[in-house]
């Protein structure tokens, strides 16, 4: 994948914070490799054909598929046969584009790609993924929520919460803001195993949707286990 030159000054980004950034340009996702960041979010527009397929087809089916991908591989097995109606091709092209971007940024030989429709809470507590990195994109429903480094007391993660809810355990510092990704946004999150940055993985959670009529369509990519 060829990457064009980008201006790496923070003011060139759509939005820049202490540990994360928004951008309108896919090339700028490469900035997430900088030790200053543990999250890059590409806010993007998608084609009407893709949006139509997600709304009218994909979000109405129960899907839970996983594949291992290498550059050049076909991704059509992510979708069940019932969804391979011709309208699905734009979605598959989008998955391939995102896989190519993730592979180029991470220099990972092979990826695990997961597609799932979700109607309950997945990871309702704030946490850090135990992987080098993970890409998330929500095609339908509310997107992943996260906290800025400055808003988190990491000693309160997991057992450090003392069994209390995140909002009561002291995990969230005074004035903390819970951010969320927009529909179709591509978030590249560093995990606990990102090289050279122990203890800096992104603190995030799934949005709480239990007890609502909401459905999420979630695409995830990460390094394949060896």
Give your account of this protein's structure:
- The protein is of the alpha+beta class.
- The chain has helices spanning 48-56, 89-106, 166-169, and strands at residues 15-16, 20-23, 39-42, 64-69, 111-118, 133-140, 145-147, 179-180, 186-190, 203-205, 216-223.
- It has a single domain, classed as Jelly Rolls (Sandwich).
- The strands form two sheets. An eight-stranded mixed beta sheet has the order 1-2-3-9-6-11-5-4, with helices on one face.
- Strand 1 and strand 2 form a beta hairpin.
- The longest helix has 18 residues, at 89-106.
- It is globular, with a radius of gyration of 17 Å.
- Residues 1-12 have low confidence and may be disordered.
- As residue ranges, the low-confidence spans are 1-12
Instruction: Quickly count the helices.
Output: 3
Percentage of residues in helical conformation = 10-25%
Distance between the termini: 24 Å
How would you sum up the major sheet? 8 strands, mixed
CATH topology: Jelly Rolls
Mean pLDDT: 88
Query: Strand-and-helix sequence, N→C?
Result: EEEHEHEEEHEEEE
Q: What number of structural domains do the residues give?
A: 1
Per CATH, the class reads Mainly Beta
Strand content: 15-25%
Assigned CATH architecture = Sandwich
**Gyration radius, rounded:** 17 Å
Task: Summarize, please.
The protein is α+β, with helices and mostly antiparallel strands and 226 residues long.
């Amino acid at each position: 994948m060829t990457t064009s030159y980008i201006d790496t000054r923070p003011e060139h980004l759509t939005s820049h914070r202490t540990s994360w950034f928004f951008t309108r340009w896919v090339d700028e996702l490469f900035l997430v490799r900088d030790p200053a960041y543990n999250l890059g979010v590409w806010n993007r527009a998608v084609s009407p054909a893709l949006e139509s397929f997600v709304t009218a087809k994909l979000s109405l089916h129960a899907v839970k598929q996983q594949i291992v991908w290498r550059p050049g591989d076909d991704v059509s097995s992510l979708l069940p046969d019932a969804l391979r109606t011709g309208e699905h091709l734009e979605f598959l092209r989008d998955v391939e584009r995102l896989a190519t971007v993730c592979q180029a940024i991470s220099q990972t030989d092979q990826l695990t790609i997961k597609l799932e429709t979700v109607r309950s809470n997945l990871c309702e507590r704030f946490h850090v993924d135990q992987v080098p990195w993970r890409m998330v994109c929500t095609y339908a429903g509310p997107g992943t929520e996260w906290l800025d480094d400055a808003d988190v007391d990491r000693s309160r993660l997991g057992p450090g919460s003392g069994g209390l809810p995140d909002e009561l355990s002291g995990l969230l510092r005074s004035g903390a803001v819970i951010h969320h990704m927009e529909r179709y946004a591509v978030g590249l999150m560093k995990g606990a195993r990102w090289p050279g940055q122990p203890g800096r993985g992104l603190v995030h959670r799934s949005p709480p949707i239990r007890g609502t009529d909401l459905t999420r369509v979630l695409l995830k990519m990460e390094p394949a286990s060896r």
